[in-house]
Amino acid sequence: MIKPLGQRVLLEKVEVEKTTVSGIVLPDSVKEEKNIGKVVALGTGKKLDDGSRVEFDVKPGDRVVFSPYSTTETKVDGNEYLIIEEKEILAIID
Amino acid sequence: MIKPLGQRVLLEKVEVEKTTVSGIVLPDSVKEEKNIGKVVALGTGKKLDDGSRVEFDVKPGDRVVFSPYSTTETKVDGNEYLIIEEKEILAIID
Amino acid sequence: MIKPLGQRVLLEKVEVEKTTVSGIVLPDSVKEEKNIGKVVALGTGKKLDDGSRVEFDVKPGDRVVFSPYSTTETKVDGNEYLIIEEKEILAIID
Amino acid sequence: MIKPLGQRVLLEKVEVEKTTVSGIVLPDSVKEEKNIGKVVALGTGKKLDDGSRVEFDVKPGDRVVFSPYSTTETKVDGNEYLIIEEKEILAIID
Amino acid sequence: MIKPLGQRVLLEKVEVEKTTVSGIVLPDSVKEEKNIGKVVALGTGKKLDDGSRVEFDVKPGDRVVFSPYSTTETKVDGNEYLIIEEKEILAIID
Amino acid sequence: MIKPLGQRVLLEKVEVEKTTVSGIVLPDSVKEEKNIGKVVALGTGKKLDDGSRVEFDVKPGDRVVFSPYSTTETKVDGNEYLIIEEKEILAIID
Amino acid sequence: MIKPLGQRVLLEKVEVEKTTVSGIVLPDSVKEEKNIGKVVALGTGKKLDDGSRVEFDVKPGDRVVFSPYSTTETKVDGNEYLIIEEKEILAIID
């Protein structure tokens, strides 16, 4: 398992079906990864001067939108993950 | 639905009719998106040290002017949105 | 109407007659916009920690010199405006 | 007249006679503007938290050396001026 | 031995077997170094104003993921090492 | 005379004889200016909040090594000078 | 002698024998200077507000690893030196 450090979050990429307004699912090749991912694990939390840790606004399982170019890709045991600072997560998709 | 995080705002693009001074509506192709949008949803608000959240100067429904190159585009359920930091919103159009 | 946010100011461009020292007005094409504008409206003022707002050094009607590359152009109801941070306004022309 | 804002200064360019050591004045084309200017007017002074204004180290009439690339040129009523932050003025020439 | 200074960490590169999902080990040439390393030694710790030193979140032996382009390579006694600031270590692989 | 402002220093370039180890003085063309200069005058000193001025670590007459690309050249009354922030002076040559 | 200023350190370059694992010393041309140097002299130490000076973590004679591109080269009395900020020294080689 991967345990992020500080105020970082571990994400899995979410592939978004590219569908036209009328609902036709387009072929794989045009799958849009409109910088959307799913939260897998939370980090240790940023250390504050008094020794406490900052809480997170997101939780495992949340589908989120993140800033492009703000993730580090890594591959462990064959699985691909993204590691991102929480402040680069822009929104939660209910 | 998309819930922005922190002091961010969710916008929809507003297409501005390109009209000459004499009022003739020009064809689609020259529709100017002079960085104008409509507020759809407000974020959770920036967390202050005392745990309170910063209030917003804009509200849902406001037509606003924003800095170019300061938005992240995303597409959810077929709808296109812009996510922006409130400090990049320059003015409200009454 | 456009209401700037924070310590921003709404300007109109001022076209400066390009005249030689001897007073001959040169043709339109060489009209110099030596980054000079006229104040149209003041923003809401920057919020201070105690909730008060910062006052402005400029006022509507002032002719001002501003830093090049520091304005955002926008067009509303056919009129062109510039939106600028007050700190980028360099001087007032009496 | 031009009234600079904050800790800015209004300068006139000073053209320096390019002379060889033996005193021969070289033709116009090689007039060196080794970033030297003359102070024309002082700004309103930077506002401090207690409402007071920062004093200036230079005064009108001083010949000064300034950092290259740190001035904004403007032209008002046919006269060319430079507007500069005082901190970019490097030295006073007695 | 190499003793890092401040909040730095000494790492050894970890070569990751590039295997397809079905488990076939690919040839050397495609060994992926997906910015993964092993902690060899901790630094002296960042000095705080009261003279104490900041503790580390990682410990010797940990397998870690680090930001690309954030390490300095060095070679001592024939061994290759990476020196990195702890804040560039993104996660620990349990 | 030139009076630097703030924590700046006025330097003269020092031309360093390019000599081989065996002591042969090489021709003018390869005179190395390994960013070495001589202190000519000290500035007014940086103003502190309590109105006092910061002292200098260098004094007129010191031979010093300075960071490349950190000086502004100027020429007054036919003499060439360098103006530099004291923090860009790296060392004193005893 | 060269006396560095502030929290700077004077280094001499250390040439590292490029040897293969089996111990064969490679020719001069491939001498690796894997950014390793020897401490020659310590600076005056960074001035703190209370007038005291910051202590150094390194001492003359230490062999150290430093960040590439963080040194200024200079040559005095025929000897080549490197001047570096202590914070760019990454580790001490025991």
Automatic annotation (TrEMBL), chains A, B, C, D, E, F, G:
Keyword annotations of the record: Chaperone, Cytoplasm, Oxidoreductase
Subcellular location(s) of the protein: Cytoplasm
UniProt xrefs under SUPFAM superfamilies: GroES-like (SSF50129)
Gene3D superfamilies: GroES chaperonin
One Pfam family named in its UniProt record: Cpn10
GO cellular component: cytoplasm
Purpose: Together with the chaperonin GroEL, plays an essential role in assisting protein folding. The GroEL-GroES system forms a nano-cage that allows encapsulation of the non-native substrate proteins and provides a physical environment optimized to promote and accelerate protein folding. GroES binds to the apical surface of the GroEL ring, thereby capping the opening of the GroEL channel.
Quaternary structure annotation from Swiss-Prot or TrEMBL: Heptamer of 7 subunits arranged in a ring. Interacts with the chaperonin GroEL.
Protein name: Co-chaperonin GroES
Species annotation: Haloplasma contractile SSD-17B
Taxonomic lineage from the root: Bacteria, Bacillati, Mycoplasmatota, Mollicutes, Haloplasmatales
